[in-house]
Specification:
- The protein is an alpha/beta fold.
- The chain has a single domain, classed as Response regulator (Rossmann fold, 3-Layer(aba) Sandwich).
- The chain contains five helices and five strands, in the order βαβαβαβαβα.
- The protein has a five-stranded parallel beta sheet, sandwiched between helices.
- β1, α1 and β2 form a beta-alpha-beta unit.
- The chain is globular and about 35 Å long.
Length: about 120
């Protein structure tokens, strides 16, 4: 069973927190990327079971990354949960309409984060 998670996040504090939380889950392999370009390439090569995507990266928005992942046969079926400080109803609806499988607002609730991870890695 694939227990690989790719975190596409540019904030070192957030990536460190996600990494610590994910390592609590036995057998989970964590990959990280701090730019959209690196994240899309890692998604193609690593084929993770789940992608956790920051909505505002230095080189692209979450919507752009979602579009690019959906357009590639090798990444189109990977679930992507967007994590963002912009949790307004319209912003969340746009991300979900753009292909996000789920949404977590920053700062995220640790229990909710782990529940979402379990949903995709169980």
């Amino acid at each position: 069973m694939n227990r690989t998670v790719l975190c596409i996040e540019d904030d070192p504090i957030n990536i460190d927190l996600m990494r610590q939380l994910l390592h609590r889950r036995s057998g989970t392999v964590v990959h990280q990327a701090s730019t959209a370009e690196d994240g899309i390439e890692a998604a193609r090569t690593e084929q993770p079971a789940l992608i956790l995507l920051d909505n505002r990266l230095p080189d692209a928005t979450g919507r752009e990354v979602l579009r690019r992942l959906a357009s590639s046969p090798t990444t189109a079926t990977i679930p992507v949960v967007v994590i963002s400080g912009d949790s307004g109803r319209e912003a969340v609806a746009e991300l979900l309409a753009s292909g996000a499988s789920g949404f977590l607002s920053k700062p995220f609730d640790i229990r909710q984060f782990m529940t979402v991870v379990e949903q995709y890695l169980a």
